[in-house]
């Protein structure tokens, strides 16, 4: 169920920064996995069972979530609290009214959710959109975009994850292959360039407006071809080394896309 299986190899920057929609079996699979985790963790006595419990928790939450949690210094105790919150939400119909479910949490539990998603301000469930509340109740690595504007609301925060949630699997596979070994700064730069191919920011601000179908592979092929043409046209105006870097990346992505 995880966007990347938990293993010994480090998760790539592109996968760490990407998100996917929870599938039809996501919530039931989480509940079943949580029951297994809870059964082991309640019987912990000594180093051996604790190790198994930690492994089950990592498998439950997924590689992206666990990697970001380590980066943010979130301990196993808060991880367990958050997993329990999600299990209650999924089992009790909380995702039908995610803001209402968040209102049922204690101040301490809301603080855990806030920390888990690296939010600057305390969570006020009454002020959240359905999308903003819903995404607080998904592990990192998963998200929804109910209004299909290319932005995911997480609480009051707004973020962009690339590829879009509805991108074809063929493009996602190509993107992860083309960005393999890149650092997060490079992945973010090229991701924003590709995002701007699909969405336009209105003059004066506001949410992005779709300008190409993000669920069609042809949109990405056309966009890559357009970027290759553009960097040739503006070669003399690019910073030193940028032409070579961009040409190499978009040519590689074009080859993989076929």
Structure, described:
This protein is 55% helix and 4% strand. With 258 residues, the chain is mostly helical. The chain folds into two domains: 13-159, no CATH class; 169-257, no CATH class. Helix 3 (47-61) packs across helix 5. The chain contains twelve helices and four strands. It is globular and about 60 Å long. Strand 3 (199-200) and strand 4 form a beta hairpin. It has a two-stranded antiparallel ribbon with strand order 1-2.
Question: What features would you highlight for this structure?
Answer:
258 residues; mainly alpha; 2 domains; two-stranded antiparallel ribbon; 12 helices; 4 strands; 55% helix; globular
Topology at a glance:
Elements: H1 13-17, H2 26-41, H3 47-61, H4 63-72, H5 76-91, H6 98-103, H7 107-116, H8 130-136, E1 152-154, E2 157-159, H9 169-178, H10 184-198, E3 199-200, E4 209-210, H11 217-233, H12 242-257
Antiparallel strand pairs: 1-2, 3-4
Gyration radius, in Å: 20 Å
Q: State the end-to-end distance.
A: 29 Å
Q: What proportion strand? A: under 5%
Residue-averaged pLDDT, rounded? 90
The main sheet comes to: 2 strands, antiparallel
Within the largest sheet, what's the order of strands?
1-2
Residue runs with pLDDT of under 50 for 5 or more positions: 45-49
- In total, the number of strands is 4
Globally, the shape reads globular
Structural class assignment: mainly alpha
Number of helices: 12
- How many domains would you count in the coordinates? 2
- Helix content, binned percent: 55-70%
Instruction: Give the ordered list of helices and strands.
Output: HHHHHHHHEEHHEEHH
């Amino acid at each position: 169920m995880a966007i990347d299986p938990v293993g010994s190899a480090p998760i790539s920057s592109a996968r760490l920064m990407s998100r996917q929609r929870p599938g039809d079996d996501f919530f039931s699979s989480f509940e079943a996995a949580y029951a297994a985790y809870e059964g082991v963790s309640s019987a912990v006595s000594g180093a051996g069972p604790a190790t198994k419990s930690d492994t089950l928790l990592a498998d439950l939450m997924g590689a992206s979530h666990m990697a970001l949690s380590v980066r943010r210094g979130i301990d196993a105790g808060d991880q367990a609290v958050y997993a329990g919150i999600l299990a209650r939400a999924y089992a009790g119909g909380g995702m039908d009214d995610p803001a209402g479910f968040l209102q049922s949490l204690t101040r301490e539990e809301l603080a855990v959710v806030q920390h888990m998603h690296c939010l600057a301000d305390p969570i006020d469930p009454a002020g959240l959109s359905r999308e903003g509340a819903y995404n607080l109740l998904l592990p990192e690595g998963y998200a929804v975009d109910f209004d299909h504007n290319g932005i995911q609301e997480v609480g009051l925060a707004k973020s962009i994850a690339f590829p879009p949630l509805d991108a074809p699997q063929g493009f996602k596979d190509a993107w992860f292959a083309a960005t393999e070994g890149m650092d997060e700064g490079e992945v973010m730069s090229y991701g924003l360039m590709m995002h701007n191919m699909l969405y336009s920011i209105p003059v004066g601000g506001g949410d992005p407006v779709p300008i190409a179908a993000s669920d069609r592979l042809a949109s990405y092929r056309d966009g890559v071809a357009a970027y290759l043409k553009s960097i040739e046209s503006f070669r003399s105006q690019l910073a030193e080394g940028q032409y070579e870097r961009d040409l190499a990346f978009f040519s590689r992505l074009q080859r993989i896309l076929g």
